[in-house]
# Entry
Amino acid sequence: MKKTVAVAVLLVIGFLIFYTALPVLNYGFTGFAVILIFILVAAAFTTSDKIITSKKVTLKLTKGGKIALGIALVLFLYATLLPLFTSAPIFRNQDYREMIGKVKTGDKMTNHIAPISINKVRVVDENLAYLLGEKILGSDPALGSKSELGEFFIQKVGDDLYWVAPLLHSGFFKWLNNSDGTEGYVMVSATNERDVKLVQNLNGKDLKIKYQPEAYFGSQIERHTYFNGYATTGLADFNFEIDDTGKPFWVATKYEKKVGFAGDDATGVVLIDAQTGAINEYTIANTPKWVDRIQPISFVVEQMNDWGEYVHGYWNWANTDKLMITEDLTLVYGEDGRSYWYTGVSSVGKEESAVGFALIDTRTKETTIYHQSGATEYAAQSSAEGKVQEKGYKASLPVPYTINGIPTYVMTLKDGGGLVKMYAMVSIGDYTIVGVGNTMRETLMSYKNVYNMAGNRINPDDKDTRTVLSTVVTRIQSDIKNGNSFYYFTLNGNPKIFIGSSQLSNELPVTVVGDSVRISYDTDNEEVIDVSTFDNLKLGVKKK
# Structure
């Protein structure tokens, strides 16, 4: 009777462990084996017979106990020796290196990275998005007392870039009292820190995020998926995303082990409706276009590092030709509108500078390397902070853009409270070329001025693609911002507004309507264009 009770208790404990840990029940995964080993060993000794003599107490295993220990031994070998022989890099290093797929060599990074548009520059990072989200959540005391912000994920919604985070239960009793779900999600524009939305209804109906990480029992998102047909499937990165209509989903990446018990590789996605729990499975090729990320960042980091590590096999103690990524990956959007993981690539032992840059498609994992030396993300941050070192501001993680054909890091400079105080632009090719300002336009003008003064030292082979215009000034007006004088003017026959500072030319302050001028500027889609050079043809001897 006692043995029966003990076995029943073990079975209950085993079920609870499985229910909590959710181990994948498939070859290549070891979690379930570890749990079964614990249960089988405990069962073997619990059901054994006790033999008591005058000198000692010994345990005699029953036939069932011996079988249980035998199975446990087999599982132990499965979880230890088998992974060693099937997955060890010493045997499988080239398989690991090839996990990233064929790595293409790109011509110019400027052909891939999205050109800058002043009102589309990402100025809000994840930390600032969280602060802004907390502020709007705190504006409703009733909501803030029962919910908390989840993790923010950046994504494109239509043509705009947003940080999106769900409202989550803040504890067991809060979930118990609101088991139908939390009341919506928060959207923070990545390009405008004043654009913060608390979305609580969709198409006239209240939003309820029922399935989520902070729910319990069957409403916990990973458990809900596991017990609805995915106990044998590897799932990673339950990211919160919304489709273009605002409908919330959890996006989980399906993956398989490609190198024995290792080599995690994405094979598709599972979309779980955050409100109803409905599950749909897709391959990589037919995943809905609004899903930005299929390739988990952890998978890509590991595969990129393996690609650089095993360039000459496992036995490469001299680090010959070894490469490594410089920083964490940054999600960027290319000129084609697709999203990419971006990182610098440096030689092992020479981490202070990059020998190239990589763009990895976040959906297909297609990888392109650009062999262009330049600044690492850390060097760019240090250079930007050095420009305002007296203020003690800290730079955000740089985001690469193309500014008039120049690969450029753009970042914010924040105070100790995490609030954006200034902006910075640093040339990827030469981190000594830095522009800072209190507004993005001021920063852009400063950066262009510094770049123009640097001449062609970044890339001597680059051709001057600036537009030169000789015409007459039809209107001009000055404006003082943060102690700097800016001059806005229009030109005969051109609908655009041009802007230049007194630092650009000392002829600007004395220019009047009717003066003939010659200007040059970078081809730009902005309505207000920064001029690169300014020459008043009526003043003094002109340079040729």
